[in-house]
Amino acid sequence: MRVAVFSDVQANIQAMEVVTDDIQRWDPDLVIMAGDLVNRGPSNLECVRLFDRLRSEKGWLPVQGNHEEWVLQCLRQPPSSPMEAQMRGVTDWASRPRGDAHARMIEDWADRRWCPAPAEA
What we know:
- With 121 residues, the chain is of the alpha/beta class.
- It has helices at residues 13-26, 44-58, 66-76, 82-87, 89-95, 99-106, and strands at residues 3-6, 30-33, 61-64, 110-111.
- Strands 1-2-3-4 form a four-stranded parallel beta sheet.
- Helix 3 crosses helix 6 (99-106).
- The mean pLDDT is 85.
């Protein structure tokens, strides 16, 4: 079985297009996007839409990374302090214009905390 795993696109649509084209040419049996598809870059919704299309058409599997968790937190809750407001500046800028659509698309992705910790030997 051939498996492709990618992550940390960080809302860079150009990078995502290159990676997803390469993965599709390789044609693995399973593709997992292991989180951090969004945040930091300007193309949050575009990256999520591209992934959502590949998920629907090809069965690619998503996992929420810490950046998806942060985006959802920022979309749902106001900052709790002036320091947090500063920390959220870029995330709010990149996510707010299409916040509701964005949140609906990523909130059902598997939570990375769902994966059990390995058993100790």
